[in-house]
């Protein structure tokens, strides 16, 4: 009788869709971790690798198959059954046999032939993506103190281009970050790279090659995040100002619901209450506004990068075409005086 009765009070610790396939209702990020840790066994989220015999025994029990069926599966799915070369021959992993019948190798051969037909080699974005993948997959720390603890949560965060870039509005994220629940909002802010922070303060038209003493991010340090009616202000430095107070006062004068404030440096990601899939606001440099969307919240697993020093981890950055010089079409355009004689000599040679 008790099992059939369900409480009419919704469990706010379990994320529910507000709009199917779009975003959830508000919930506390840390409740996802707490909820899973109470429902899972410690071995389900442990980093320890199961030995082969234990894995096969658990697999057979879960699937309800006999030992004879398990032995047949072991034989069919073994690496030896995938060999397409002589046993005593050392294969070249980059060469795909032309007469292979494996679907994966057929597709790989098509991909290799397509790449060989292209005249353009890998650009810097593809090389950077390969480097990111090498950093992410299965990376373990050198010391145990740098290991992410078992049962930690990982958030996937998309940061979009500023609203002034109409070409990129609502299309694709500028960057995607992985962060743990124990990170605070200032670490998220420091991981966001924006061209507005890199602008040069001052007049350098006569000395374009001189390195500036400071950039905009060193001079204008104020910023805030806005999540679910709360302004989280960066107040780490004496120069920081509360740039959200203007919006709060305006909302009061127009009878909007009251907003609250908190310090960015005192707020952990796991303590936030927000909606997954819903756009929020990051504002810096006075009026440079970015959409920030949390797209995933999950427990860390043993195949993640477990080195906490590599987080916040950049997993994606949007490809940007570099503006070439309009005269030579070879070099990247730069600020400064044009040396016409050197360009003419370049083409004459």
TrEMBL record:
GO terms for molecular function: bent DNA binding; core promoter sequence-specific DNA binding; RNA polymerase II cis-regulatory region sequence-specific DNA binding; RNA polymerase III type 3 promoter sequence-specific DNA binding. Its main location: nucleus. The keyword Protein transport does not apply. GO terms for biological process: snRNA transcription by RNA polymerase II; snRNA transcription by RNA polymerase III. It comes from the Eukaryota. It is found in: Nucleus. Pfam families: SNAPC3. The keyword Thylakoid does not apply. InterPro entries: snRNA-activating_su3. Keywords: DNA-binding, Nucleus, Transcription, Transcription regulation. One of its GO terms (cellular component) is snRNA-activating protein complex. PANTHER family: SNRNA-ACTIVATING PROTEIN COMPLEX SUBUNIT 3. Part of the SNAPc complex composed of 5 subunits: SNAPC1, SNAPC2, SNAPC3, SNAPC4 and SNAPC5. SNAPC3 interacts with SNAPC1. Belongs to the SNAPC3/SRD2 family. Part of the SNAPc complex required for the transcription of both RNA polymerase II and III small-nuclear RNA genes. Binds to the proximal sequence element (PSE), a non-TATA-box basal promoter element common to these 2 types of genes. Recruits TBP and BRF2 to the U6 snRNA TATA box. This is snRNA-activating protein complex subunit 3. It comes from Oryzias sinensis (Chinese medaka).
């Amino acid at each position: 009788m008790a099992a059939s009765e369900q409480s009419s009070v919704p469990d706010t610790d379990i994320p529910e869709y507000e709009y199917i396939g779009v975003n959830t209702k508000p919930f506390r990020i840390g409740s996802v971790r707490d909820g899973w840790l109470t429902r899972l066994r410690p071995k389900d989220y442990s980093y320890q690798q199961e030995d082969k015999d234990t894995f096969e025994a658990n697999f057979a029990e879960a699937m309800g198959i006999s030992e004879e069926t398990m032995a047949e599966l072991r034989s069919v799915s073994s690496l030896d059954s995938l060999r397409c070369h002589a046993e005593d021959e050392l294969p070249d992993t980059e060469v795909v046999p032309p007469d292979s019948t494996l679907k994966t190798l057929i597709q790989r051969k098509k991909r290799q032939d397509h790449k060989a037909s292209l005249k353009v080699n890998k650009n810097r974005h593809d090389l950077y993506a390969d480097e990111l993948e090498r950093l992410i997959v299965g990376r373990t720390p050198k010391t145990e103190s740098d290991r992410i603890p078992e049962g930690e949560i990982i958030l996937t965060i998309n940061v979009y281009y500023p609203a002034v870039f109409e070409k990129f509005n609502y299309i694709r994220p500028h960057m995607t970050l992985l962060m743990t629940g124990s990170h605070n909002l200032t670490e998220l802010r420091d991981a966001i790279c924006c061209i507005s922070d890199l602008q040069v303060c001052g007049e350098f038209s006569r000395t374009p090659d001189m390195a500036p003493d400071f950039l905009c991010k060193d001079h204008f340090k104020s910023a805030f995040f806005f999540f679910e009616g709360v302004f989280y202000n960066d107040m780490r430095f004496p120069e920081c100002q509360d740039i959200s107070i203007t919006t709060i006062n305006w909302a009061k004068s127009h009878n909007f619901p009251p907003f609250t404030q908190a310090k960015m440096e005192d707020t952990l990601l796991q303590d936030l209450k927000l909606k997954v899939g819903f756009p929020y606001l990051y504002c810096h440099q006075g009026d440079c506004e970015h959409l920030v969307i949390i797209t995933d919240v999950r427990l860390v697993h043993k195949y993640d990068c477990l080195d906490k020093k590599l987080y916040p981890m950049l997993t994606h950055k949007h490809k940007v075409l570099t503006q070439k010089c309009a005269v030579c079409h070879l070099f990247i355009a730069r600020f400064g005086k044009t040396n016409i004689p050197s360009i003419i000599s370049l083409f004459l040679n």
